[in-house]
Specification:
This protein is mainly beta and 178 residues long. The protein has 1 helix and 12 strands, in the order αββββββββββββ. It has a 5-stranded antiparallel sheet with strand order 3-4-10-6-7, covered by helices on one side.
Length: 178
């Protein structure tokens, strides 16, 4: 029932163009109760797998004070620093992996040199929502290792103040069949 209410709220906010109230101090936008963690899940964990998708899930507090305006996701660890992503297939939805709700529009860019995704939500994700962003590599890294992605959230509004959410950890394994 809670997920249905989240979907209805998002449809109302997106469909009616209702503004979300943001906490602004000295011209900057802040979360009053920021998200504080990120979950990273992938169901394909061996080297070179072409079906991999990386699910980054963030939950916003109902009293966040601002909608989620964007994310920055940077690969900070992992021996393979050249595996490419299919940026055009980046998408987002309300809910968690395997519990998908309504789609959420997202604009994505990827800087290969810094290994950084910049994601913007043209229609901010409302407080109280759980949102999952899906990044799609062309294939998993070619080297087994522990890969870490630093995630930062940005509230919707002018001059958003970044909120670090921590790291998503992804372990990529060498298959046993060799």
């Amino acid at each position: 029932m809670h997920r249905v209410l989240q979907s209805v709220l998002l449809v109302l906010v997106l469909g009616l163009g209702l503004p979300l109230q943001a906490l602004e101090l000295r011209g900057k936008t802040y979360f009053s109760k920021p998200p504080w963690s990120v979950d990273l899940i992938s169901y394909y964990l061996t080297v070179w797998e072409p079906w991999a998708e990386y699910y980054f899930t963030i939950t916003l507090d109902p009293d966040a004070g601002a909608g989620l305006g964007g994310l920055q996701i940077t690969q900070t660890r992992g021996v393979d620093r050249s595996f490419p992503f299919n940026v055009a297939r980046t998408h987002a939805f309300l809910g968690r992996p395997r519990q998908r709700g309504a789609s959420v529009p997202v604009d994505a860019s990827f800087d290969h040199d810094s290994r950084t995704f910049r994601l913007a939500f043209p229609q901010p994700v409302p407080p109280g929502s759980t949102v999952t962003v899906v990044l799609k590599p062309w294939n998993n890294p070619g080297m087994a290792d522990t890969y870490m992605f630093q995630v930062t959230a940005f509230p919707a509004g002018p001059q958003p103040s970044p909120t670090p959410l921590g790291y998503g950890t992804l372990r990529i394994y060498m298959p046993d069949r060799f």
